[in-house]
Amino acid sequence: VTLVGCGPKEIASDDQPDQTAETNVTYSAKKGLLLSPETSRFIGLETVEVSERPIQATNEISARVFRAATTNDPRALASAVVSAADAAMLRPGLTSIQTPSSPAAEVLRLDRSEEPRTGMVEAILQVGDPSLALNEGGFVSVRFAIGSTNAVTVVPNAALFHTTAGDFVYLENGAHFARAAVTAGRTDGEFTEITDGLLAGDMVVVKSVMTLWMTELHNVNGGDACCIKRETKR
Prior knowledge:
This protein has helices spanning 37-43, 84-87, 115-118, 209-219; strands at residues 2-4, 18-20, 25-28, 32-35, 46-49, 51-53, 56-67, 75-83, 105-111, 120-128, 139-148, 152-156, 161-163, 166-173, 176-187, 191-196, 203-207, 227-229. By secondary structure, the chain is mostly beta strands. It folds into two domains: 2-54 and 150-229, Beta Barrel (conserved putative lor/sdh protein from methanococcus maripaludis s2 fold); 56-147, Efflux pump adaptor protein, beta barrel domain (Elongation Factor Tu (Ef-tu), domain 3, Beta Barrel). A hairpin with a 3-residue loop joins β15 (176-187) and β16. Residues 1-15 have low confidence and may be disordered.
C-alpha cells in the first residue's frame, strides 16, 4: 500500500489523529476516515463488495425530442445526429438498454442523405415516456450495447467519483474508509470496470460517497487530501 497525493499542509499523524468533534469523525493520513456508528447511520453510509462479472460496453447517444409523448401514445420521437462510426453500430429495430438514467428506446430509421457531405447520420428514435417527462425541444440520453467482456472487476457507478486528480472510491480499510485511486474502464451505465486499484472482495462505499469526500477535505484544512493507491496489476 502506497500513500500518494498528500497536500502541502501538515496533517494529523497516526498517533495524533485529527478529529471533527461535531460530526464525531477521526481522520488518519494513513488509514483514512473513522466514523462513529451513529455518524455512519446518520449519513446513510452503505458499502458493497467489489465483484467480478461480464460488463456490456455501451454507446450513449444524446437525441433531441421533436414530438413529445401523449397520454394516448406514451412514446416520444427524437433525432440524434451521430458519426458514421456510431451509426455503424445502429440498425432499425435495435433497442436500447434501459437504466434508471436511460429510458427504453428503439431505432426507427437511419437517414444517411447527408453522410457523403458531412460524414454524419441522423438516427430517428422512438423513446418510451409513460410519465410524459420529455418535452419537445428537450434532450434525452439513451444507451445501446456495443459489446461485452469476460468477467472483470467492477464496482457500481455510485461508488466512483472524479476529481482533477483522477477517479477514486472509498475503500473499507479495517474500521476506516480510505480514498483509493482507481483506473476505470468500460461502463454499462450501472457498473464500471476497474482495471487497477481494487480486487474482487474489497468493500467500497456506494452511499454518502461525496459526504466522505467533503469531510476528508475539511479534515485536511483545505490541503490536497491523501489517498491510498493499491498496485493490483498482475
